[in-house]
Design goal:
single chain, binds iron/sulfur cluster, binds zinc ion
Amino acid sequence: MKCHNCERKAVITLQHAPACEMHFINYFEDKVFKTIKKYQLIKLNDSLCVAASGGKDSLTILYLTKKYLKENNLKNKLFALAVDEGIKDYREHTLIDLKEFCKKYGIELKIVSFKEEFDSTLDEAKSKINGKKPCNICGVWRRYLLNKYAREENATKVITGHNLDDEAQVILMNIFKANTGLAAQLGPVTGIKEHDLFVQRVKPLYFCTEKETKLYSILKKFQVNFAECPNAQEGYRVQIRDMLNDFEQKYPGTKQGIINSFLEILPLLKNKALEQENGKLKQCQECGEPATQNICNACKIAEELKCAVIQD
Ligand code: SF4
Ligand code: ZN
């Protein structure tokens, strides 16, 4: 099959037409840069922290953020922040890829860990806390550390590698669980309103599919380990992912349809959440980080873990 724009061999069929390597790369980069501009994900004085793990999405967004700054002659501070959750036979490998990548492209890298912060790796925590899925512990601690250390390094934006598939999955998860309050936090720019303790999270890969991002990272020859986290299969998300992939195959455009519909109702969800949120945000009495109750979720999990260890 030939590219829609030239005589070269196609490497992918995009929504409307096949594309060769060069035209696909141009299309992909153009889409990311347009998203940054349209949603003002990077402003002139922003100090940028890229949440990185060494996976395909984070290496792609690290590379493209650097490229975007260079092409637009911007001098924003940029660094990568990685969280080592302590997932044996998995995270240590992706962190090696990340260190190599940052060295190659001259990007400062900071690594923080569950072990240092919470005195427990994810592997240790999941074996001690019953009734909590590893992804639930991981998600809470990971978001906590990214926000805390991005803020400590004076970052004004945390750039994440979430792609269109990730977002479509989370939208459905929140709808299925009737979490419209949480759904209001989604979108290319997360959060409902700016807050001193929260560093705003932004998603330049918002309109890029998983398939496109994977192909981009392969064509750019990034050193990526495509293995999945060993805990992924235990999560609710993986079932939503499989269902969505199945639907996408039968009805192409399903995922994009979810995103488009969601973006139309997002302003309404945000307004509703704003009305309900008035005065709700507090500071955790244990650690001082933002919380909706007296103790934040990260401290609650750490406390549960301590109790489980004492009972042992
Ligand atoms: Fe953490 Fe679950 Fe993702 Fe693994 S799959 S990194 S445990 S959230
Ligand atoms: Zn706390």
